[in-house]
TrEMBL record:
The keyword Transcription regulation applies. One of its GO terms (biological process) is negative regulation of DNA-templated transcription. It comes from Agromyces fucosus. This is TetR family transcriptional regulator. It comes from the Bacteria. Residues 265-325 form a coiled coil. One of its GO terms (molecular function) is DNA-binding transcription factor activity. Keywords: Coiled coil, DNA-binding, Transcription, Transcription regulation. PANTHER family: HTH-TYPE TRANSCRIPTIONAL REGULATOR RUTR, TRANSCRIPTIONAL REGULATORY PROTEIN. InterPro entries: Homeodomain-like_sf, HTH-type_TetR-like_transc_reg, HTH_TetR, Repressor_TetR_C, Tet_transcr_reg_TetR-rel_C_sf. The keyword Ligase does not apply.
Length: 326
């Protein structure tokens, strides 16, 4: 068993030398988590953690032998789930929803969790408690063991992906001089000009209605609508599969495509892609020429106005001289 996993289970041998009374694995992990929460996972190093505790780096190595082990223990400490009492009675859908929300809360509290690569099945105690909790919530479903684990993977991936997206957008908003740069409101007018019905027939009306990028001045209120919508649709799919299993319905077999819908050969695909690129290039060039023509027309109009202004000034001066000569 890897030492990091053994440490998580509490079955690794404790160090025989070093500042045992002042330092512990728990203190080391807590300090590392505190650094990651404040500055991200990249800021965590053995030397940084040691310095924050007032010890040398070698002191830490007597307890945690590598940074990989430290990160594993950080993950283990950060995902301790608030497993509800088993006496609570509720349907599988409510139970799974509570489970996903708990996973999301962990990613919100410790955003750096999404930066830890998934390297295999969880084998540490807190991670297995999460798996056990999920299996409790879906115990009534008529799924095979493999289907239950596939469902867990699906929902874990959803919570992790939305956690990463939320973290990244939040970081961008915090770094931006104007939050409207992140929401896209500052680019509404430019996009409204560029996203034309001819080129984007389905996106254009949605953009014009404010469904893609909010119009300038629109109050932005962060909600969980997108997250809730996605979760509910996933649960709808699970519920649909439950119904099919309970009814004994066989899996829907894929029907062969009719001849008119058969996928084109590779050469045809390449030719179609090339033709599309050439058409888009021609459109861009035409739009560029149109913009240049408008620019030149405006410049000519401006120059004409300047010449007219000069001519009027000369005429006014000539009249003034004529008046004075009288």
């Amino acid at each position: 068993m890897p030492r990091g996993v053994a440490l998580a289970w509490g079955v690794a041998a404790n160090p025989q030398r070093g500042p045992k009374r002042e330092l512990s694995i728990e203190r080391i992990v807590d300090a590392a988590v505190e650094i990651a929460d404040a500055e991200g996972l990249g800021a965590v190093s053995m030397s940084r953690v040691a310095a924050s505790l007032g010890f040398t780096t070698m002191s830490l190595y007597r307890y945690v032998t590598s940074k990989d082990d430290l990160i594993l223990l950080m993950q283990e400490g950060a995902v301790l789930p608030p497993v509800p009492d088993e006496s609570i009675e509720r349907g599988w859908r409510d139970g799974v929803t509570a489970w996903v929300l708990a996973m999301r809360a962990a990613y919100r509290e410790h955003p750096w969790l999404v930066d830890i690569p998934v390297s295999g099945a969880p084998i540490t105690p807190n991670s297995l408690l999460i798996v056990d909790w999920f299996l409790r919530e879906v115990r009534s479903l008529p799924f095979s063991d493999g289907e239950k684990m596939s469902t867990l993977l699906l929902l874990t991936s959803y919570a992790r992906a939305t956690g990463a997206q939320e973290r990244d957008i939040g970081a961008a908003a915090a770094a931006a001089a104007d939050p409207a740069d992140v929401t896209g409101a500052n680019y509404f007018e430019a996009l409204a000009e560029l996203v034309t019905p001819e080129r984007f027939p389905y996106l254009s009306p949605l953009l014009a209605a404010g469904g893609y990028v909010a119009e300038p001045g629109t109050d932005f209120e962060e909600t969980d609508d997108d997250f809730s919508f996605g979760l509910e649709r996933i649960l709808d799919g699970i519920e649909y599969h439950v119904g099919r299993v309970e009814s004994g319905a066989a899996a829907v077999a894929a029907e062969p495509l009719p001849p008119s819908l058969e996928l084109p050969r590779d050469k045809q695909v390449r030719e179609a892609a090339k033709a599309r690129r050439e058409a888009e290039k021609a459109l861009r060039e035409a739009q560029k020429r149109e913009r240049e023509a408008i620019k030149h027309a405006l410049e000519r109009e401006k120059n004409a106005l300047e010449r007219e202004k000069v001519a009027l000034e000369r005429e006014r001066n000539a009249r003034g001289k004529a008046e004075r000569a009288k």
